[in-house]
Specification:
Blueprint lengths: L5 H4 L12 H27 L17 H28 L2 H6 L4 H12 L13 H25 L5 H6 L3 H28 L1 H9 L2
């Protein structure tokens, strides 16, 4: 029979290790809301001038029509931009990015991917990211920067002509924006699925411990 007691198994709130600091949790949830608003309103904007031979169901769009969707999209855009810049500043200033996301090695990514696919990837220590997490989180930061820049070039193609030119023009910027959106949606699906599979990670993002 195990000699573990309740006090051994669960640390008290006062002594439990902080996994996610308050600033990370606050910015994370603001970012989540802003992304959902931007994606849903962006789908409504896309429906007004589709790039491909399909449209998104009206039930998962936001804004009701093009004008309403644009209002929601621009409001969420500023929220996402300010929140994202704050996250980048804090992440760099505190050294969180360096400690959490580096190094990323091909061998580490391959090894952890195999472990994840076979159900052998450990989630015991939430203070450390595995190589798959490092790659996904670093990648989504890059995608986030690209979607903001491509969005700005679509919004102001004349005033920000130099920016649109970096993407190869207005039309290509639209494709880049769409691809980045798809990547973010895919990331969110995986992110939510992992939170369901490892509920203690969700708890840490809510209470920090």
């Amino acid at each position: 029979m195990s000699s573990l007691t309740a006090s051994d198994a669960y640390a008290s709130p006062a002594t439990a290790k902080v996994i996610q600091p308050a600033w990370v949790r606050i910015l994370h949830w603001i970012n989540a809301v802003a992304m959902v608003l931007m994606i849903m309103s962006g789908w409504q904007i896309y429906n007004a001038s589709p790039l491909f031979d399909f449209k998104f169901s009206h039930s998962i769009t936001l804004g009701g029509w093009l004008g309403g969707a644009l209002l929601w999209h621009f409001a969420a855009m500023w929220l996402l931009t300010v929140n994202g810049l704050t996250y980048l500043v804090f992440g760099l200033a505190t050294g969180r990015f360096r400690k959490k996301l580096l190094p990323i090695t091909p061998s580490g990514v391959i090894s952890d991917t195999k472990a994840a696919l076979t159900g052998k990837l450990s989630h015991h220590d939430l203070t450390r990211y595995n190589y798959v997490q490092k790659l996904l989180y670093a990648g989504i930061i890059v995608v986030g920067i690209l979607i903001v820049l491509s969005g700005l070039s679509i919004w102001k193609p004349v005033q920000l002509q130099w920016l649109a030119a970096l993407f190869g023009g207005y039309e290509i910027a639209r494709y880049v924006h769409f691809i980045c959106m798809a990547a973010i949606v895919a990331f969110l699906v995986v992110h939510v699925a992992l939170a369901v599979l490892v509920p203690k990670s969700l708890r840490a993002m809510i209470i920090g411990r």
